[in-house]
Every structure is written in structure tokens, then in C-alpha cells.
Amino acid sequence: MHPDSPRQANALLYKAVPLMRKMDIAPTPYNYGIWYEYVRQTSPKLNQLMDSTIGRLGSLPSFISKELFHQFLVAEEARYNSDHKDRLEELVNSVSTSTYTMTESLQELGSVIEKSRRVLSRADRQQHLEKVVRYLDQGTKKALEEAEYFSTSLHKVNEEVLQLKAELDEMKNNVDLDPLTQLLNQKGLERQLYSLIPSSEDDLSLLILDIDYLKEINHKNGRRAGTALICHISRILHSKKLENATIARLNGGTFAIVLHEATLDYAIEYAEILRTHLNKQRLKNRSGEGIIDKICVSVGVATVIGQETPANLIARASGYLDNAKRQGRNRTASR
């Protein structure tokens, strides 16, 4: 979405709606958002994809519009951050209500015009012409009122989207946070370890947990499924988080968990509890169908030795993770 003024938004509306009506495109929020961007011509790649799809199919199916909407109009972080997701859903519902109201008004205006044509075809007295004028006056006034209301509503939605975008940009600029999950990133993890290791007494443990077969999941179900799985696991890890524990996402499907005052045996036990719990989870799509029937992860566990550096502790835990993978995956290794 772009910071268009109400007048600009209204002008784009009058370009987008006729194109949608010409191809019998349903006035859904996703369709409207895509066609609004199309007539605005600020995303050449989007326009190219739409043109090629219309060229092949003769129209733009709703499911493709929805995919394009998520790809070009909504940032990936916004799709999977729960708070922002809720706010986006409210915006979509708001645009949906206004869009349907606007569509009904245009349909009523079409009926008025058709009635006017019929009256004019047999008009032979002044009163017939006056009747046509009254029809058109009432119909156009209502349509203009709805158009003005819709334009104002769209402008408010646009302002809210810009605010969301600013928040997402701010999150991206936070060098210690992973923008997708809002967990610490590797730099944030290292900062935590630097502050914790000097005061630890061989009871600081690090778990490196990695999603098994993530590459195959992406290949089979698409990257969006893999991203959804990463976010799903991040929420589970947060819900199972121990007091004073620190969770980070390092890269891809790899997470780190720092356990304060945890011996190696305790850390291994906790890793197994997490792994077993994740094995029981399923990832479903919006229709409730299962995409992944069993979530498998491998875990490497290491406990700090003396004044070991953060980099060395991470390397040891990562090495144990590799051992767990070599031993068959979906298991915990501490050597």
C-alpha cells in the first residue's frame, strides 16, 4: 500500500473497478488490493505476472490474487507476527466491508441507468424526461456518496498499513532481534553469552535445535510452509521456555536455547522433553488439513567449560547437533 491522498486513491479506484468489472473479478479485498497496485504501476514484476496470467487464463483467479497479495503487498514478517497478523486481518475486513458496499452502490447505479434508458426509449412527454432526471440525480448522488466514503475508508486503512510498515522496519533495524520470530538472532545470543559466561560455574548449558528435513519440506510444500513451521516452533519453544532461559533463532530452522544454572544432565533431559513434545505436534493449513504430521528435530547439548568463549560453546553444541543428524536425526546428542 502507498501513501496516496484521498483524491489519488479515488482516481485509482475509478481505474481499477472498471477493469475488474470487465473481467468479472470478484470485489474481494485481495482482488481490490492487487488491481489497485496494478493501475498504480509501481511494481513492474507484479504487473508482468498479472498480464502473463491473464494472457494464459483470460482472467485472474482469486487464489492467484491472494498469493500475489501476500507476495507483493504484505511483508513476510507481517504475515507471521501474530500481533501484526491480527491487525492486518482487521484491515482486510474493513476494506472488505467498504468494497462490497461500494460494489452494491455501483450495481444500483447500473440499474438506475438501465431504467433511464428504458424510459428514454419511449419518452414522448416532458414528465418522462423529468422522471429520468430524478432517477439519475438520486442514483448518482448515492453512488458519489458511497465513492467518497470508500475513498476516505481506504485512506484510513492506508495510514494504518503505513504505521504497520514503520513498526516492521523498526524491528528489522534492531540488530539483536530476528525479524521473523522476534527471538534473539545470533548476534543477540552471543551478547547474552558474553554477559553470562564470566559469572557461570559450569552450569550454563546451550541447546542447538534444528528442524529435520526442512529442505524437503520446502521442496514439497513450498517455502511458505517451511516459514510457517519455523514460526510455529518458535512459539512452542517460547511457551515451553524455562525461567531465565534465553531463546534465539540462528538461521533457517536452527534455534538456540541458553539454560541458566543447568547441569549437562538437566539440559539433556529438557532437550528430550522439547523434542518429544514437538514430535506430537502437527502443522495444518487454514482449511485444517495436515501439512506435516510429525515435527522432527535434532538437538545438540553442551555445557560451558571454565571460561569458554561464546564462539567455542556455540561451535561445540553445533558439532553435537551434527552428530545427532549423523546418528539418524530426531534425537539429542551431547558428545
| Structural class by sheet pairing and helices | alpha+beta
First and last CA, distance:
51 Å
Into which percent range does the helicity of residues fall? 55-70%
Q: What is the total tally of β strands? A: 7
Tally of structural domains: 2
Overall geometry comes to elongated
Average pLDDT number: 79
Strand content: 5-15%
Overview of this structure, please?
It catalyses: 2 GTP = 3',3'-c-di-GMP + 2 diphosphate. It comes from Marinomonas gallaica. Pfam families: GGDEF. This protein has about 325 residues and is α+β, with helices and mostly antiparallel strands. The chain folds into 2 domains: about 5-175, no CATH class; about 185-335, Reverse transcriptase/Diguanylate cyclase domain (Alpha-Beta Plaits, 2-Layer Sandwich), CATH 3.30.70. It is about 65% helix and about 10% strand. It contains 12 helices and 7 strands. The chain has helices at about 5-20, 30-40, 45-55, 60-75, 75-80, 80-120, 125-175, 185-195, 215-220, 225-240, 265-280, 310-325, and strands at about 205-210, 245-250, 255-260, 285, 290, 295-305, 330-335. Strands 2-3-1-6-7 form a 5-stranded mixed sheet, sandwiched between helices. Helix 12 (about 310-325) links the parallel strand 6 and strand 7 (about 330-335). Helix 2 (about 30-40) crosses helix 4. The longest helix is centred in the middle third of the chain and has 48 residues, at about 125-175. The radius of gyration is 28 Å and the shape is elongated.
Summarize this, please?
This protein is α+β, with helices and mostly antiparallel strands and 335 residues long.
